[in-house]
Amino acid sequence: MSNNTVIQTPETSLRQALTTSDHLDVSAEGDLLIEGASARGLIEKFGSPLYVVSEATLRANYRRIKSAFEANWPEPVNVMYAIKANPNTAVRAILHQEGAGGDCFSMGEIQATFDGGADPEKIVVNGSYKPDDVLQRAIELGLTINMDSEEEVDAVERIADKIGKSVRVAIRVKVLPEEYFKNFTSDCFKRPNFFQGMQRSKWGETVNGAKRIIRRLQNHKNLRLYGYHTHIGRASRDPNMFAAIGGELARNIGALYAETGFAPTMVDLGGGWARERDPEASGDVVNPHPIEDYAKAVCDAMAQQFHEVSMPLPQVWLEPGRYIVGNAGVLLTSIGLIKRDDELGFTWVNVDSSTNNLLQVDLFGYTYKAIAAEGMARPITQNSDLVGLTCVPSVFVRDCPLPDVKVGEIVAVLDAGMYAEAKGYHFNSLPRPATALVSGKFSWLIRRRETVQDVFATMVLPERLRPEA
Hints:
This protein is α/β, with parallel strands linked by helices. Helix content is 32%, strand content 22%.
């Protein structure tokens, strides 16, 4: 063996995977540290399995994406946290302290946003269909409503007129840059024809539909037309995709400006911004493109189109969720059983959580990185399937590189901040984990662990079906 050969360990594996905003380290004793708190200490304090959120990472991610767009756009930038990615009110409170706006889809998300703190001037409400109670609450609070269709105008008008209050509205545009998408394959959404899928999706109005809405709303007493919105989502890590979407959106807006004279105050670019450690790609988790690449690509493309029609530059709003919270979260889970089959040549490391708690694995095939969180200086000696305890395969990581782990040790799954708590469910009647917030060496419970009683709390058994005492 060469003297230059590096023995792979959980510690070297972690350090190779770190991004600039991660606050993960290894203690002198070889244990995982999340900021200043050890994985073992957190499990002893809060129990297992456990979601852990790093406050420092949340703040760093928000500041970086805001700075990236401000460096490439001369008008104000409003970074709105998409609370669907992680609805924990402590997360929302931290981001409100940072000055974040918000993207909401429901009464529940409006409540969670304001429970954590919110400036109504920076909040939008989205959705292809917004029930009357959502529209009324949005208007009462002074939020901006991104209207998804010409048909939706009737409901917004009716409610605004009923309560006698004006409301800012924007139009969601169905952006279809066909030249870019004609040979496009998403690294996340496994659709045979992505362009046709976008055409058929329920979201947004065509340019002609947007034109009709503009003419209808000009000089409306209660509906104040404020801007435009689009959102494709996490479809690719290619900056050219974002440039294509931004350029096409701006071209459409410029054409509408030339015809109607309406110059938007803001353009909302939605979310889907890929991260540097990118399990969403369902393969290679290393993304070579930092957020600055995406900001420059989309801002340059939009600015060019707007300048061509001499339209004043609008504010840029955007709706990052996973970018802000993704790598801020870690799932800590304890090994309960190790099954080896020498005849078949497989090993299964069973842990006390399941893909119930990391649903993107089962929904989209996300490729998460899992590491042993204790004894991290030990050499990696095996590739084992890391599996959960439900009656489906529940494979967190196939061929997960691990040292000679033992029952009771902790494994950490990175990037659990996004769509883990939000999409967790009760398959096999399993309660969901607790969540802890870490700041430096301090930690707090920010979501209590569910009990079996919580799982069944909403069920009602009619008297006639109750078993006899």
